[in-house]
Design goal:
Largest sheet: none
Shape: elongated
Distance between the termini: 22 Å
Radius of gyration: 18 Å
């Protein structure tokens, strides 16, 4: 791990907030699922549990993320989460009309676990570098993740209307992987017992 004195903790926080904002796309699931159902003519019953199962899959994502943070650090953990989240959208664009159940794997499992990795990893990294402002940092992380849908949903609706649902899924998937990787490159966990310079 790099010397803590060389790490820009503000940069870590900004990167974490970008990743968390991106992960907040999970709260806009209906924006994608409903147009997919309409595009393929799927019944509501065939995909009714996609969003619920996706939320459930965050739990193992949080647990696995916590384990991976201790083994591989923040950067690897967050890159993994961004890959999983990006794949959720990329693979969902290839789900055939005859197999709506596959959304439970692509959209639900991958997205749920991916967001679990992202939320736990980014929040852990950000708060670790701010032991003196842990409450504020945690609040910012929750706000960026939870409030993302307010801004993302209208943008995604516009993208779907302009490009079509399958192209929109591909674009979003690629954007998540690219943005996530760029943001995660500078991420790392704070050393145990880290105290900001100038603080006692």
């Amino acid at each position: 791990m790099s010397n803590a004195k060389t790490v820009n903790r503000t940069g870590v926080l900004v990167r974490a907030l970008i990743i968390l904002f991106m992960g907040g796309i999970l709260n806009s699931a209906a924006v994608f699922v409903s147009p997919l159902a309409a595009h393929y003519g799927w019944t509501t019953e065939s995909i009714a549990g996609v969003a619920t199962f996706m939320a459930f899959m965050q739990t193992p994502g949080h647990i696995l993320s916590g384990w991976m943070l201790g083994k591989a650090g923040g950067k690897t953990t967050l890159m993994t989460g961004c890959i999983l989240l990006g794949l959720a959208f990329l693979l969902s664009s290839f789900v055939p009309q005859s197999a709506p159940w596959m959304l439970y794997i692509t959209f639900s499992v991958l997205q749920g676990i991916g967001v679990g990795f992202i939320y736990t990893g980014a929040t852990y990294c950000a708060t670790g570098w701010y032991p003196d402002k842990r409450g504020l940092t945690s609040g910012l992380c929750m706000a960026f993740n939870g409030g993302a849908a307010t801004f993302l949903a209208p943008m995604l609706v516009g993208l779907i209307q302009a490009m079509g649902i399958k192209a929109a899924l591909l674009i979003v998937g690629v954007a998540i992987v690219v943005i996530g990787f760029v943001a995660a490159i500078g991420m790392q966990s704070a050393p145990v017992g880290y105290i900001p310079e100038g603080r006692s």
